UniProtKB/TrEMBL annotation:
Keyword ATP-binding belongs to the record: yes
Reaction(s) this enzyme catalyzes, per UniProt: 5-phospho-beta-D-ribosylamine + glycine + ATP = N(1)-(5-phospho-beta-D-ribosyl)glycinamide + ADP + phosphate + H(+)
Top-tier EC class: ligase
Descriptive protein name: Phosphoribosylamine--glycine ligase
Swiss-Prot/TrEMBL GO biological process terms: 'de novo' IMP biosynthetic process; purine nucleobase biosynthetic process
Organism: Novacetimonas cocois
């Protein structure tokens, strides 16, 4: 099978590593890829959001299956363009990708399908949004309706913070068009987890669950990021609860999407809050998360390519999908200045040393090779140092030992990924 993987981040490096192990694979192309994916296939200089360019590349290289990594090309209609070109795609149509492309759309689906979620209201006028938060007690959540790279959600602890968020998004357009319309929700309280499943029409098969660490600083302090690390599986959310959540959070959505004539085919990522009243949906994403994908895929025992092909060809019931019972963790090494203006250009060394350690794997994200062929930082989130272990404590020790082996003077990372999970396991 000739495969085109779309994307350039750590998620795509982890996906490429899993796909490259498949006996079904004849050739792997990655657009645009990064230095890590270049060791597993052929990187192609086509942007992930260049739908026309991706289709031309797929035709030129006689691609059998397109595998989207990030959300932007899906919301832009990559799967639809693949269908028109007669190329299989393991991702949802533009209409189905609105589950991530519009917070309003997701809320309407939840209401129609009876999926528990936070109370909400939508506003496209800043004055009305401000009046709403002034009439509602804080904390309250303000969300950009459109795609905002995981950074369009503000959990406002007081009225001033909520008003600032509304003005930033709606008046100052800090998130561009994504924030011209906002969804304002009640603030759910509990543990947040990420649930993943392969989906094809009304069928869903569990991938697993992870717990992301969004804020930049230790102790969940500072601004939100795209994710600074993840543990899998989350404490208190075992496979039995994950399977039950598929029945309440994912399968009703799939039925509603099919009823509307926009069936969902791809990977669904359901962000859930484990509240005292039970699980509630925070949002859907229409792809694997990052860095959750890295923590999940290092536990994969079966053939990822076969599963993705089953999704694309509506044969999910036939797929063999198995993950180990090990614990896993990913620790993101970001560039100093992230999530603002990251410092780029710093030379990165020691990855090979880290990967010689038991259970450790390093996935590249915002990196490039300089004129001398050295690996250098080229983005905000740069590396994900991942590890598996018989216990979460062992996985955590291995991952941070891997971080310690890497030499890069501009690196920042959280020192407490997995600490909260271990404390809960210990009952403290």
């Amino acid at each position: 099978m000739r495969v085109l993987l779309v994307g350039s981040g750590g998620r795509e490096h982890a996906m490429a590593a899993a796909i490259a192990r498949s006996p079904l694979l004849d050739a792997l192309f990655i657009a645009p890829g990064n230095p890590g994916t270049a060791a597993l296939g052929t990187n192609c200089n086509v942007r992930a959001d260049d739908v026309a360019g991706l289709i031309k590349l797929a035709r030129d290289e006689r691609i059998d299956l397109v595998v989207p990594g990030p959300e932007a090309p899906l919301v832009a209609g990559l799967a639809d363009a693949c269908a028109q070109a007669g190329i299989a795609c393991a991702g949802p149509s533009r209409a189905a990708a609105e589950l991530e492309g519009s917070k309003t759309f997701t809320k309407e689906i939840c209401d129609a399908a009876g999926i528990p979620t936070a109370r909400w209201a939508r506003f496209d006028n800043a004055a009305d949004a401000l009046a709403h938060v002034r009439a509602t007690s804080a904390p309250i959540v303000v969300k950009a309706d459109g795609l905002a790279a995981g950074k369009g959600v503000i959990v406002a602890q007081d009225l001033d913070e909520a008003e600032t968020a509304i003005r930033d998004l709606m008046t100052d357009a800090t998130m561009g068009d994504a924030g011209r319309t906002v969804v304002i929700e009640e603030c759910l309280v509990g543990d947040e987890v990420s649930l993943f499943a392969f989906c094809a029409g009304e069928d869903a098969v569990l991938i697993g669950a992870a717990q992301d660490h969004k804020r930049i600083g230790d102790g969940d302090t500072g601004p939100n990021t795209g994710g600074m690390g993840a543990v899998s599986p989350p404490t208190g959310f075992d496979r039995t609860r994950q399977e039950a959540a598929l029945d309440t959070m994912v399968r009703p959505m799939l039925r509603e999407m099919a009823r509307r004539g926009t069936p969902f085919h791809g990977i669904i990522f359901a962000g859930l809050m484990l509240t005292p009243a039970g699980e509630k949906l925070i949002e859907y994403n229409v792809r694997l998360g990052d860095p959750e994908a890295q923590a999940l895929l290092i536990r994969l025992q079966s053939d990822l390519l076969a599963a993705l092909a089953a999704v694309a060809h509506n044969r999910l019931a036939e797929a063999d999908i198995r993950f180990s019972d090990e614990a896993s963790i990913s620790v993101v090494m970001a560039a100093r200045g992230y999530p603002g203006r990251p410092v780029t250009g710093g030379v990165i060394e020691g990855i090979a040393t880290a990967e010689e350690m038991p259970g450790v794997r390093v996935f590249l994200a915002g990196t490039r090779l300089d004129a001398e062929g050295r690996l250098v930082a080229a983005g905000g989130r740069v590396l994900a140092v991942c590890a598996t272990g018989d216990t979460l404590e062992q996985a955590r020790e291995r991952a941070y030992a891997g971080v310690g082996a890497i030499r890069w003077q501009d690196a920042i990372w959280r020192h407490d990924i997995g600490t909260r999970a271990l404390e809960r396991m210990a009952g403290t």
